[in-house]
Design brief:
Elements: H1 9-16, H2 24-37, E1 42-54, E2 57-69, H3 76-82, H4 105-111, E3 116-122, E4 130-135, H5 136-140, E5 151-152, H6 157-162, E6 170-176, H7 186-200, H8 202-206, E7 211-218, E8 225-230, E9 255-257, E10 262-268, E11 271-282, H9 296-302, E12 307-311, E13 314-319, E14 333-339, H10 344-347, H11 357-361, H12 367-371, H13 378-387, H14 393-416, H15 418-421, H16 432-445, H17 460-473, H18 478-490, E15 495-500, E16 508-513, E17 516-522, H19 526-536, H20 544-570, H21 576-596
Parallel strand pairs: 1-7, 12-14, 15-17
Antiparallel strand pairs: 1-2, 2-6, 3-4, 3-6, 4-5, 7-8, 9-11, 10-11, 11-14, 12-13, 16-17
């Protein structure tokens, strides 16, 4: 009787080609995973290209992509298992400590990019190499229904010529008939893979556990190397030394830690596992220059935005769901979540090891909305989930921890360089502070006095000390507060500004200290984003449309601010309270007229 497979082999394999690998670099990473799992200390990405005739023109085009390693090699049975879909040697609970596991890596990653994958592997010498393969054409035509029996076969000479890792044991995986690789040259594959590979395996590379060589060479002349390099660590939380980050931060960390790492202990399948969450943010010197985001190290950080999810010392994903695509400052923080393979089910690790989907889904969860009942606190909700043995509980705790700390980190980053900017004027005498000081002196001559005027008789050192302490209390770093206080007193400025997280709903706060008036802007108030930050934040100076957008935003923000005051007056009952509001507006307007009507300031 004729048999009918539940899923015909050729159709199943065809469907598996669309298995979600983002690009060739991610597929190549699967092969590197296998190499590291096999104990390799050297892995090589070998890309062969040749001149071909395309539309009557000679063009260089990729022909083969290969991964060579000096791992333990495989015997015939293990080789056949490695080429099976859904099988592998690390599927059991005893084999879940390393970066491998799912038994899909070699065949699924390979067919996502090519029509044919060939494997040579050897133990006790390259001369003992055995060979097997998968060919999608042969599978489609029904010529093979199982992994071909391994045979003894010589390794192609071109790879023997260029490879450096042909040692006692090892494996060579070769892709050909490359029909799905978007990059058409060997150099393009290496250039695009280097950044990702350096990030995924940064711990292995930094600890000298493995060296990853990347080579582009010509099939017509194997001694001609188009490109050769070793992958350098790419650390998205920028705490490592000797990385691919451009100068001046290639050899020193660009970020510093935010608090201490937090460890969450999760019980799963009668075992306990630790999840470590670490936060970092940019050092002040990384952002000291105007538009630091447009500098090489700023552009490098822009490509590393998101939460780095580490599994078994290998980055699973740099999850952008936790960042804001329209916020350029998000490049200046880093978050690393580190968990073991035993928690794969909890985190929702996909079989291609490219994401932790359950964890990623929590990035945009509104915790208050999740709780729902206003009578239940967050801790109460967690207790409720714990009583119900809800598997979301540990991830919700971690997500809440990340969201809370990211909110604080963003405020720190927002205020990080504001005081520095205010001591770096090209001409300090042409600043708003100078104009306001001049206008205040005129008002004092007219007989108007303020609380701060009485403090002007204090010794200069005491004035600097009082202003510095107030700025530090507002959250400015000690060094920046000292610099800004000395600048203010040294220039005899009557005013200085600070940016801080003010708990009140006020847009700004005012304090008289050291003979000066300290105006603290509330970075949490929407007016700060629309009137102050929109004009001060980093921008592309070559993009006039971006500047116009910012000016429009500032204009609209000013209108909304004035309309808010108008509504405030409108809501006052007719009588003394409304007259007090009107008088305050008139008095403020008179002083503003004096401050703004200054020819020296150019308003």
């Amino acid at each position: 009787m004729k048999t009918y497979d539940i899923v015909p082999t050729n159709l199943a394999v065809k469907a598996m080609r669309d298995n979600g690998y983002k690009n060739a670099a991610y597929a190549i990473a699967e092969l590197i995973d296998n190499s590291i799992q096999a104990g390799a200390t050297q892995v090589e990405l070998l890309c062969a290209e040749k001149e071909v005739l395309v539309r009557h023109r000679q063009r260089t085009q990729i022909q083969n992509v290969a991964v060579l390693d000096n791992g333990c090699g495989m015997d015939a049975d293990v080789l056949r298992i490695a080429l099976q879909f859904g099988n592998g040697t690390h599927l059991g609970t005893n084999g879940q400590d390393g970066i491998g596991k799912f038994g899909m890596g070699l065949p699924s990653s390979s067919i996502s990019q090519c029509q044919k994958v060939e494997v040579w592997t050897w133990q006790n010498g390259v001369g003992n190499s055995i060979y097997s393969y998968l060919d999608l054409d042969e599978i489609a035509q029904g010529q093979i229904r199982e992994v071909p029996m391994p045979i003894s076969k010589q390794i192609p000479k071109m790879f023997l010529d260029v490879g450096h890792s042909f040692e006692k044991n090892g494996t060579l995986v070769v892709w050909s008939n490359l029909d799905r690789i978007m990059w058409k040259t060997a150099r393009a594959i290496i250039d695009n893979s280097e950044f990702l590979i350096g990030r995924m395996y940064r711990r292995f590379i930094a600890n000298d556990d493995v060296k990853i060589r990347m080579l582009a060479f010509s099939l017509d002349q194997t001694s001609m190397f188009e490109s050769e390099r070793f992958a350098r660590p790419n650390d998205p939380i920028y705490l490592m030394e000797d990385t691919s980050c451009p100068e001046p931060f290639s050899n020193i960390p660009m970020f510093t830690t935010w608090g201490e790492p937090t460890i969450f202990r999760i019980k799963h399948n009668d075992e306990e596992f630790d999840v470590t969450v670490k936060f970092t943010y940019a050092k002040e010197e990384a952002r000291a220059t105007r538009n630091a985001g447009s500098l090489p190290h700023g552009k490098h950080a822009k490509r590393n935005v998101g939460v780095s999810i580490m599994r078994a010392n290998r980055e699973l994903d740099l999850d952008p769901a936790w960042s804001n695509p329209s916020e350029p400052r998000d490049r200046w923080w880093g978050v690393e979540v580190d968990f073991p393979p035993g928690l794969d089910d909890i985190f929702g690790v996909t079989n291609n090891k490219q994401s932790a989907r359950y964890f990623s889904d929590l990035a945009k969860v509104d915790i208050d909305e999740f709780i729902g009942d206003e009578e239940i606190t967050l801790s109460g909700k967690f207790e409720e989930l714990e009583a119900d043995h809800d598997p979301r509980l540990p991830l919700l705790e971690i997500a809440n921890h990340i969201q809370k700390n990211l909110n604080s980190l963003r405020i720190t980053i927002k205020t990080q360089t504001s005081s520095k900017k205010r001591t770096r004027y090209d001409d300090p005498d042409s600043t708003p502070e100078a104009a306001a000081t001049k206008a205040t002196e005129k008002r004092k001559d007219e007989g108007y006095t303020g609380e701060s005027d009485e403090q002007e008789t204090l010794p200069e050192k005491q004035r600097v000390k009082d202003i510095q302490k107030t700025l530090e209390d507002e959250g400015i770093t000690k060094n920046d507060a000292a610099e800004l206080a000395a600048f203010t007193v040294g220039r005899n400025f009557k005013y200085t500004f600070a940016d801080a997280n003010i708990s009140s709903p006020a847009f700004f706060d005012v304090k008289a200290r050291g003979g000066s008036i300290i105006v603290t802007l509330n970075v949490n108030h929407p007016a700060y984003d629309q009137l102050v930050e929109v004009l001060e934040q980093e921008f592309d100076e070559t993009n006039p449309e971006e500047m116009r957008t910012r000016l429009v935003t500032a204009r609209d923000g000013l209108k909304l601010l004035l309309m808010a005051w108008a509504r405030y007056e409108d809501e006052q009952p007719d009588g003394p309270r409304r007259r007090v509001a009107q008088n305050a507006r008139w008095d403020w307007g008179r002083i503003a007229e004096q401050f703004l009507d200054d020819d020296d300031y150019g308003v």
